[in-house]
## 1
Amino acid sequence: MKIMTIAGTRPQLVKIGAVSRILRESFNEILVNTGQHYDYKMAGVFFDELKIPKPDYDLGVGSDSHGRQTGRMMIALEEVVEKEKPSAILVYGDTNSTLAGAIVAAKLHIPIIHIEAGLRSYNKKMPEELNRILTDHISTLLFTPTENAGDNLKREGIEEGVHQVGDVMYDAVKFNIGLAEEKYKLDDFALEEKGYILGTIHRADNTDNPERLRAILEAFSEVKEIIYLPLHPRTKKMIENSGFQSIVEQSENIRIVEPISYLEMLFLEKNAKAIVTDSGGVQKEAYFAKVPCLTLRDQTEWVETIETGWNQLVNPLEENLSVKISNLTVGEPIENLYGDGQAAQKITSIIQKQFI
Ligand code: UD1
């Protein structure tokens, strides 16, 4: 059976790294890279490090406005899908690449397999929320990471084809953390154990709103710990466009670096005193690493991390952001909230039962 996987962003490559290896033991996988992320540091290094097979198709779509980016992906995808005629199309998560793949599949009457289904922030202003809702509603098999994700789907009337399998990102962490710890030491980054806070910012909500972006950078510059900040290209561009470089240049503790690889990220998460982020994946990785996390957003899809006290939400415009960053504390003792690290095996055997 031929399964076509469609993806194109950094977090999707991490998930492919965990799933493809297992999927290919049972299926003929055709990998299509939309090219939504195209810099080596945002994509290429993930292929290399996670040993992801070379894509069968590179669409090279790149950045654009949402409508144009998604539309250009759909035009290119339709041609590839019509040529390959896969029995199912597999998409991950909530990016524009996910939605483009799902719409093209649905229009050609090809069953959609959605990994990381059922997540909701209940904020329809986020492009990711629209991508998730639309994809879930046209999927045949929906693999959810948690019970809460299944409940979200039920509320929208989706019960058929839903399987709770755990989180493939936990599979990825379990497989890679040992490799990360073998490969790196803190000296490589001139950092000390628990002597720094790891930060990531890239959400449109934060980067495209100068008031929020300024508040975040000012708070970072006020804390006494080192803020180690691997910067997404979009954030870099927005800092330059908004004239905020001076905040960074005048600060003694903000250390901006280029985007880092997955193994570097896992290593630095594990050794950080705390993590401050607006990424979905990094909130969970903080929880897996047993490191407290502050999420610079008003809602999160990963509600379990909040309920157990490992993660807190904060609007960057709230007062005392820097105090909140410095005073993060650990949560309840860890139980396994995101499965057993065997999600890829479960997904593969359910696909086999469904289609073969
Ligand atoms: C996308 C996803 C987001 C995911 C994130 C992970 C959508 C709607 N959003 O956001 O859910 O969390 O990926 O990183 O799909 N850019 C580069 N080089 C690259 C990639 C991007 O310079 O390799 C810059 C471009 O200036 C571009 C901007 O980043 O305009 C935004 O890129 P885009 O892929 O549209 O969205 P992300 O912010 O990366």
Note: The two ends are 8 Å apart (CA to CA).
## 2
Amino acid sequence: SDSVNGVVKPRILLMGLRRSGKSSIQKVVFHKMSPSETLFLESTNKICREDVSSSSFVSFQIWDFPGQIDFFDPTFDYEMIFRGTGALIFVIDSQDDYVEALSRLHLTVTRAYKVNPDISFEVFIHKVDGLSDDHKIEKQRDIHKRTNTDLTDAGLEQIHLSLYLTSIYDHSIFEAFSKVVQKLIPQLPTLENLLNIFISNSGIEKAFLFDVGSKIYIATDSSPVDMQTYELCCDMIDVVIDISCIYGMPNTEAGLPHDKDSMAIIHLNNTTVIYLKEVTKFLAMVCFLRKESFARKGLIDYNFHCFKKAIQEVFDVRVKVQQSRKLLNQR
Ligand code: GDP
């Protein structure tokens, strides 16, 4: 199985009708393609497009409907795949008629739930960039009502679907992906706690833990997230990656232009400072603070050092548990 430093990566299945936007989402979120370039993406007919990108914290597979998935084909071992899946994202094209998509969604969810009731079911109501705000809410309400009616009729009202309004033309797709990934991280409450302690002891207003490769945030402190702050973080990561790619030392080991010692500071003209520091090979912390607090950078760096050590322990414990489970299974 895929692992990063022994930690098993969360596995995500991306499904939906052909042309609903799955490849575009993958290219934009994980491969830094610009949204307008996706217009020229070729339609592929491969059985599944696997992405076990070594530069990110998550791994996923893409499946197309129709064509690839035939639940009645005995050679198609969907059971094994659903068993190893953490989240199933179903992409619906909101600019198209979605009756067919909803029936596929229902079929998939009910099948998957029977095999693995622990899967989190995530529905991306996608391509909402062309819709007005009222129209978006309306679509979401309609899809919510129809899917729930279908599930209730099937006697499966215990299945919970989470709905997101997404578009590759703004940050909504990153925000939605962040929420999906966060659900798959068992250490999330611990990470949030550590971030809370870190910011309150350092005079920091907000801190995010980012998967640098995808700009997905895997945790933040418990103060509310506003979209503008999140977008600033994404922009900062882009700047850091771009500068590192141009001027940085190539880090051949992981093929990444940044390493565990990378850091960056940006002073905004409204007395806010954004401070980015690498935590591990994949993860970086991005903090928002006032200029006055940044004067005590020594304290922040010391607290950061403690935070980093704690994070390593959190992930190490998990590796040890996984290893001992493996040993037990071998007996
Ligand atoms: P797939 O068959 O599900 O992998 O779909 P593609 O990724 O090939 O996308 C089909 C088309 O939808 C492409 O022309 C994309 O440019 C377009 N598309 C994807 N995401 C969005 C979006 O968020 N908004 C808009 N307007 N178009 C999108």
Note: Confidence is low (pLDDT under 50) at residues 1-6.
## 3
Amino acid sequence: FSRLTLEDTSRDELVEMGRTFNDMIALLESNYLKQEKFVSDASHELRTPLTVIESYASLLKRRGLTHPELFNESVEAIHSEAIRMKELTEQLLLLAKHHEQWDLSMKVVDLQELATASAKVFRNAYGREVTVNAQGEVRGFSDEAKLRQLLFIFLDNARKYSDEAITITLGASGQESHIVITDRGIGIPSGELPRVFDRFYRVDEARGRQGGGAGLGLSLAAEIAEAIGAKLSMESVEGAGTSVMIRIAAENRGRQ
Ligand code: ADP
């Protein structure tokens, strides 16, 4: 993009117009570059599982019939990489569509029911113990499906980056309700904490890579939180564990 230069001696309106034009260009450039980076990062992430699928498929083609012992390992690898690609594509599709275009249905949600059902899913799917602590009934005003998705992102991270029990604590204070997800896992170094919500950011590429994350979970969480009006805060101690708090309105305070 080329910039418009106007002499300061020009008429005020022209100088003003020049400034507006340049601001607009700067905005366009930043969005353009961001988008370009997004596309190249996304392509890079999709290429990794595709390469694995391609090499196992070619191995099967060349030696599958003569070496039956290769069969299980190859099919297993192709299957798990395909699942990873599917999850990644779903995350990318959600992120590509700005949250203002999402269909939301805000209503009063029973948080205890939501937490208990989510804990059950995690127990069944991953064999991980998830304890729910709540004193009495806790309700929140939210889009139920998106809130569940938000909770799942944090539970999934708690599962990937810890080996011990995960806790969900529910509570309310004043007009606000909260959901806290706590793990006693590897934690996040304090200097990294502000960056973990960035797209494709991972604290350490080596650790937990087998979990298969692409560093998109938390950026999606931030997007969902903005859409449903939830506030997120994260505390972590390296080597001790991580705790995430989701705060939402206890009831509908806005206009219908
Ligand atoms: P990923 O798919 O890599 O898990 P996320 O966006 O969900 O991506 O998280 C970004 C990074 O933040 C992770 O790669 C991990 O290093 C760190 N992280 C997130 N949650 C936790 C947690 N509960 N414990 C330790 N590290 C975490």
Note: The radius of gyration is 23 Å.
